[in-house]
UniProtKB/TrEMBL annotation:
This protein's name: ROK family transcriptional regulator
Organism, scientific name: Mesorhizobium liriopis
Family matches, as InterPro entries: ATPase_NBD, ROK, WH-like_DNA-bd_sf, WH_DNA-bd_sf
Similarity comment: family membership: Belongs to the ROK (NagC/XylR) family.
A Pfam match: ROK
Stretches assigned to coiled coil: none
Amino acid sequence: MNDVSRISRRIALCSVMETIVHCAPISRASIAKQTGLSKQTISEIARQLEEEGWIRETGRTSGHVGRTAVTYDIVPDRAVIAAVDLGGTKVRAAIADLSCQVLSDVEEPTDKRGGHHVVAQIARLCRQAAAQEGLDFSKVRLAVIGVPGAPESATGRVLMAPNIPGWDSIDVTAALSQELGVESIVENDVNLAARGEHWIGAGADCDDLVLIALGTGIGGGVMVGGELVRGVSNAAGELGFLPFGSDPFEPQSLHMGALERSLGSEGIAERYKELSGRTADVKAIFDAAADGDKEATKTLDETARLLARAVASVAAITNPAKVILSGSIGVRSELVERVHALLPLCFPRPVSVEASALGSKGALIGAAAVGLASLHAALWTAGMQGATIALPSAAIMRERGVAA
């Protein structure tokens, strides 16, 4: 087989696999109709894929006049990926299979010792997640780990993640790959949440969006033309360092960020204490506001003003079709409604703002999206330009009960 024939065959293989991933169970005749490939080519590729264990017969077509036809589906656990969402307080790990299903996840508090202890914890939880699904870990081909802060591609370090001690001084990517025994991709967790929302969440209908995650801290994921904006040091979207909220020239603001100091959970609690003289966590403040507590209500009002300024700031720079609010605090309807009311007062153009559709699973689903796209490419395209496997659309995933 010459090079042209080999490339043509590879592209045909990708087309067949993409159709099966998107439309299974599906017959060879239906694959031919959707791909435009000859029945002979499809029969040859289907035979190869079945012999190698990538697809299987699942039944026969029904409801048609005449002979029925064999239908095929992908073997979902022939190869899988590990998806991880690491936070300062907890870490979650899940398995995603070739059919793009994110399987049940495991979770536990993040090891406060940081460094290699967290690396070992992530590897253990990935193995636990695989075992929970009855999968041999040898089926895991790739791991995608969402982390707070900015992964540094040149050194493998993770910067600007003070809640994970020691990760700014070790090659985290190499350590994870060694501990897991598979290639590991380390990505900012909010970037992954943005990818998740873009795939099957609130941002599935647009390619230009900003996700703002507000919880313990604040971060952002920016997508333009369907691609993440990373910046020269992978730190694009670090909204906590916007120079308002607190004094950006105070030394503390170089460590945590002026906006994060005022808009993160600690800043909200401190604001309420200054107004009321009482100590309460964020949940209690929201509850108090719902019960008519004036100081709690004013705390939420001021918090929403800061959040609206953050939304206006990113809207002025990126002009997104949509801003998605996520995180344990950002998704609260009390804040979303206030931001809707405040934005027209501080920004001249309409800005569409919605709460996250994926909630706490956004980063895990984003990790699955990144991992599955990479795994499909590695398995089928062989690096050939023009040969790709697209993930199933949000509409397809909704039919499978996965998308929001």
